[in-house]
Specification:
Structural class: mainly beta
Largest sheet: 9 strands, mixed
Helix content: under 10%
Distance between the termini: 24 Å
Number of strands: 15
Mean pLDDT: 70
Length: 221
Amino acid sequence: MDKKDYGSSNRRKFLIGAGSVAAGGSALLGTAATTTFNLNDRAVSADVVTDSSGAVALTDTDDSDIISLNAPNSNVADNELEIDFSEGTGASGVNIGSKVTIGDTNTPSNDPAFTITNQTTDVVDIELQFEAGGSYSAKGSGSTLQFHVRNDNKSAQETLIADDGLNANSTTSINFQTSDSEGLDDGDKLDVAIEVNADNGSSGTGENLSGDLNITATQSP
């Protein structure tokens, strides 16, 4: 595959993920996509828009029934990746008292749920930002949504956590930056594992982990 040369003389940003993570609906990662993790015994699903021809590619690397590309009989469009926690389980979603993981949350590069690959000819910085929705509500010691992200080439790993540390419309983010020697080199990738934990002491149906997940790649000068 040819690498994309976007010109290293200019600082450029590529928004490669924009979506929502909400209790009660479906979940999407990617441009114009939405991600939902339901904690109230309803369907839990996620969709990831893929773009193998773009500056940065999102790729499904999970071989379970939970993650599928262009899944038949699903609500996702072509070239979208569906993550459905109810698929193949006979259940309707993630119940209170349950913990669900996709990929290796300790070392995502061993078994990622999906990857973020730099297809440019230069180093890029990657930011993953979670923005809590207007109805966001999480209890202390309650349920959490986590994205475990690793740049194995740089031995760098960060975890993006949505929990009671957030309020409605607030944000939290993690970064893999060149200034910290964690930027994504030409052809390298970030490996991502996903964890929904509804088995904490105060986990309950009153929680709402709705929000937006944005993944932005910035090409440094």
